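Q: What structure does this chain adopt?
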Amino acid sequence: MGALHAGHLSLVEQARSENAIVVVSVFVNPIQFGPGEDFERYPRDAGRDASLMARAGVDSVYHPPVAAMYPPGSSTRVHVAGIGDPLEGAARPGHFEGVATVVSKLFMAVEPDRAYFGQKDAQQVAVIERLAADLDFPVEVRVCPTVREPDGLALSSRNGYLSPAERQAAVSLSAALRLAAEAFASGERRPERLQGILRARLEAEPLARVEYAEVVDPRTFRPPGTLAVLAVRVGSTRLIDNLDLSKGFSG
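A:
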């Protein structure tokens, strides 16, 4: 959605290594934002994004206006049932319909052989994989690792909202994931205990408010499983992160 950073560039790098032509879509999608969310203030810098993409060797940037994507009278929405319902789906009603709809339109516009998404948005990726399979899109969905700051914070365009104190507090997300991964590596398998480790670390941070902290099956996004998923408000900024505990924490 723009405000591109090193995480996005890692997707471009992977795409460049596997394809002759790379197209990047940049579109702040209004229908995936709910009432009171940050659509109006979401960071936008089309000139900077285009410059970054040119230096990265992107062949084309697809940057359509909202009116082209959703002409007057447009009312069709794509709903991916099941996997899109819990967690982010419950916390942000209509969000995944917006994602599935815009991704369907982008797939139709570009007709890619492969599409690249970041693991940071794990449930979104799972929704898109289900979407592509169910609607017979001839595209391979490629999932690339989460890119993190040296202190562990997952890169996100929304990190720019954080004050210095909030930025320091945001490290609590990756710290909680690291502790849960260490417990898993030591043999802990009880979902309630792993969830308790996540919550205890997050709730120890005064500036953090936990929306959810669960350990789920990555195929269903319901417990039990090995994927730790977090949604936390640090100040007024909502951040998400995740980690497959069976693979440990790196970064």
